[in-house]
Each structure stands twice: as C-alpha cells, then as structure tokens.
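User: I'm putting together notes for a lab meeting next week and I want to include a structural view of one of the chains we've been expressing. I don't have a solved structure, so I'd like a prediction I can at least talk through. The sequence is below, exactly as it appears in our construct file.
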Amino acid sequence: MKARLPFFVLSVLIVMSMLLSACAQATPTTAPAVAEPAAADTAAPAQPEAPAAPAAEQTTIKVMSFFAYDNPEVEAAVVKAFEEKNPDIKVEFESVPMSDIFLKYKTLIAGDVAPDVMAMNFDNAYVFASMGALEPLDEWITKSGYDTSIIFKSTLDMFKVDGVQFSMPATFSDVVLFYNKDLFDAAGLEYPQRDWTQEDLVAAAKALTADTDGDGKVDQWGYTFPWWPVVLEMYNASIWSEDGTTCTLNSPEGVKAIQSIVDARYEGKFSPTADQLAEQGDWDMFIAGRLAMFPTGPWAVQPFNDKITGFTYDIAHMPAGDVQATHVYANSYAMAAASKNKEAAWKFLAFATGPEGTKIRQDGKYEISPVKEIAEKYYLAALAGANPASAIVFMEVQDYAVAQPVHANWSQIHDSIYPELDLALTQAKTVQQALDDACVGVNAALNQ
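Assistant: Thanks for the context. Below is the predicted structure for the 448-residue chain, given as structure tokens.
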C-alpha cells in the first residue's frame, strides 16, 4: 500500500504546481530565431530554475520484532541500514517484548492488520506456519537468487514445515559446556575434551564436588544438566513417534535419559537437587565459582564477562551420552501471508537475515549470526582476548546440534510432562511411572 501524503505537504505541492504552470504560460516554448547580444553593462536575464524531479514514492512496510528488546538500538540499526540501501521503502518498526508479541500477532492477524514482517522464535514459527499465517518463502528465495548455502543448515532447516521454508533465521544460539578452568587446575584434572563421554564427565564431576568449608554440606558442585529435551537427545530418546501419533517418552531410552539426572543428584551426588538449586540457581552458582561445569549458550558470555572476576572460564563440546547431541535455537523473520507489500517485505527480510543485517545484530551482542562467514569471522574477532578462548566451539557443535521438539500443541504437551518430570526428579515417583503418567496427557495432545 502506498503511503499517503500529509494534507499540509499536499497543499504545498498544489500551490507550487499552480505557480509553475503560470510560469510555463509566460515563457516562450521555443527560443527566438536570432538572439540579441546583451550589452556589456547589462546583466543577462535570469534563467528560470528547472522544476525539481518528483521524489520517488515510498512503499511502507510494518515490521514487528522482539529481537534485543532491552537494547532497542540494535534492531533500529538494522532498520536504518536497510532504509539507507532502499530509499524507496519506509519501515514502520515496532519493538515488542517476547512475552507479549505472539498474542499480539494473533490479534492483528485476526483483524487482517498483521505486520508485513514478523519476528519468530522456533516453536511459534511452526505454530503460525501451521495456521496458514505465514508466506511460503521458497519461491521468493529462488526468484531473488538468495544463496542459502551461506547459512548454517541446522538453523535454516529449523524453519521448514513439511519441507517448505516459512521463515529465515536471523540469529542462533546453542548449548555447549561452560567450565571453570581454575577449579579444574586446582583438582589437577584435564579440561573437557572433544571426545568426552558421559563417563568422563561423571568422573570429573565427582572429583570437582566438594565440601570446601568442612561443615558437612557440599559447597562446590561438579555439574548441572541442560534442559531435559537436550538430555533426551543424548540418549536417542524422543517425546513422540516419527509419525507424531504416539508418546515415546516412556521408552527405555527416555527412562535412561531422565534416570541419568536422578542418579547424578541422589547416587553420584555431584549435581545439585531441586531444593539446592532453589537456594541458588546454577547460573548464579557458576558466576560465584561454586559450579565447575554448566551447559548453557552464547547468551551467557556477556553477563559472565561482566560479572566473573575471580576465575577464568572456557567452553567445550557437549560430552556424549549414547550419542553426541545438543540443541540449537534460532530466531527468524517471517512474512505475513496477508501482506499487501510482499516485494518490499521480502527485501527487508532478506537484508535483515543476510550478512549485513545479521552482522549488525551480532555486533550488538544479540546472539550469533546464522551466516557462517559472519559468525566465524566477526564473532570470534569480537571475543579476541576475552573469555571464552574457545568460542569457535559455538560453531563446531553445529555438526551434531538438533532443533528442540516442536508441535502445534507443544504447550499442552509440555504442561503434561513437566509436573510428572518434577515428581521423578525429586524421587516422589519412579522415572518409569512418571513418564508413563506423562504419556497419558501427551497422547491426548498428539491426537487432538
């Protein structure tokens, strides 16, 4: 839809048009056959100024995003750079907190006033694509010659539904093993290695767990576990069957995965229990130097570098369970299926998820660019001389990183699992019983 000119500007243009028209009537349209030379002391008549070329009319698109909401200048810089390269497109940009944005989208879509371009996280990209609210992008990618080979494949594939690309990754992050080098040095242990298994991790974690003040209570812990779906991946377990019809969380693989967490807490006693984590979370434990190994992602780098002063940390690959696995997370930009400005919307989407747009976002310390060259070259350069020294690991784990599970009824599935999982992890139920009970609710959600 073309932008309307404000009434004041329109009035000025009408008056100027009338004046130019009068000027044109008073001026001969052809030059005289013979020009009289001007007297030496007579100034040459002033020449009428040529009318200014009309400004190119702009297309206005609306973009809504939660990216770097707490640092709005980051995404504002992406918008500014895009407008400078595309002066014929005006971006009306709105920053909305992630907690509110997806409900807002639904309201705007229902009212047929959705933004042309919408920021998405992984699970909501699936939900909105399944609703038919997002424009399929494969044709736009092909027509524009967008080279998708420059993007980490794991992040690109996250935003496909039934093989169709519905949004383009704009940032990514993944889970790696952060570790306290000073604690390893003090214990005389080697740092985590690329080929470590869970057995290696358990041995190190036990050696690093200690009662440092002799009061009979553990003050220093060896390890905490990542989000439970990551642990499932490490043991080849899944929440549902490949055809998406049956809960498989209670399979032998699923039980083994969750049992590994319970055993670490209550038998190996190298990982804090839920009650102990309630006293101080693992994030704060790591910052305080009380946790030797902590699986988390690049979102932790800046806060850790700001707050950790008493020790040096680094990152390593995730130790393998039955397989080596971790999760990759990404945020994306999608085009509304109902957009009336799709050409302009695609131009913004391609820019904002391409090398230039993602570098601006990465320079602003909002996650990592999914464009390989930008991530590998500039992200690492920005961290030169700072922790973690092995930041390349964030890129290397893409070899075995997988996306989190996603389903149109994911919220209901998660709500069916979480209370039962809590009972298993506090030993109120056996792992098998808890997962059997969780599957009752999961099966109901899968078959809606």
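A couple of points you could mention at the meeting. The chain has 19 helices and twelve strands. The chain has a mean pLDDT of 89.

User: Perfect, that's what I needed.
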